[in-house]
TrEMBL record:
Protein name: Succinylglutamate desuccinylase/aspartoacylase family protein
Gene3D superfamilies membership: Zn peptidases
MF terms in GO: hydrolase activity, acting on ester bonds; metallocarboxypeptidase activity; zinc ion binding
Organism: Pseudofulvimonas gallinarii
Residues at the active site: E274
Domain of life: Bacteria
One BP annotation, GO: proteolysis
Entry's family note: Belongs to the peptidase M14 family.
CDD domains xrefs: M14_REP34-like (cd06231)
Domain Peptidase M14: 30-306
Amino acid sequence: MTQERFHPIGTPGQHWGDAEKAQWLAAQSIKRRYADEVESRIDALRGRFEVIEYGRLDYAPDHYPLYALRSRDWSDALPVALVTGGVHGYETSGVQGALDFAAGAAQDYAGRVNLLIAPCVSPWAYERIHRWNRDAIDPNRSFRTDSPSGEAAALMRLVEPLLGRIALHIDLHETTDTDETEFRPALAARDGKPFEPGEIPDGFYLVDDTENPQPGFQQAVIEAVAEVTHIAPADAHGEIIGSPVVAPGIIRYPLKALGLCAGMTGARYTTTTEVYPDSPRATPAQCNAAQVAAVRAALDYLLAHPVA
């Protein structure tokens, strides 16, 4: 059923223009600091990784350097694995989980896999705990040629020299209660569409690629994460966020066609993780640990099933 829900910005049925976007931007405020929570952790890893500044967001008066961590023992003889987090800045465990992995378990893969980790793709949104960038654009629908998102475009430039060599890409996300209470109503208002209420799944799930399904890979990740936190069940329609469940905790999207981050590399093994930090059955630490477990399981699967 479609439900009309009032949004304080815009006129129902009409796309936002510049005035509405300016009104939205004026309502955003800094709630945490990228420098304190992300850059400081990256600096602490300089002894273990090569730190690459792969771009810069000039959102005056704010300026955000974009960082990636690259294996110091990089070898052309090894498979390449890409780990991304914070494409949606409000999804905290994606960022902190990527950094936790880099600070800990990543050392177990030294000399076995080339790691490229972009832990916080959207720092402006990270500080404001928001899904969109400063221009009210969702970076995770913008991984395409001539991207309107500076965040997506910068990451695509970083990985472009590696296209055809990346065997694995795992993109770390969260699904939160604010998806339903804040971000989806705002999306409907921005696009001049009616808000259609949905159901937030309670637990961890994965998004596989419709065009390149890898059920064994997805299942290996689910099994590893199930030891850390609970897996989201299907709803009464056999779906998770409106998509059919193809296996416990697994749905599929056409990743590239939708402009999703996980679809930008053409890697054999791709997945998007989704944890649920608002669950009464999970803590922030569990959510971070679930992301680390997912990355480890993905890498272990790659090593056991190498890409020819």
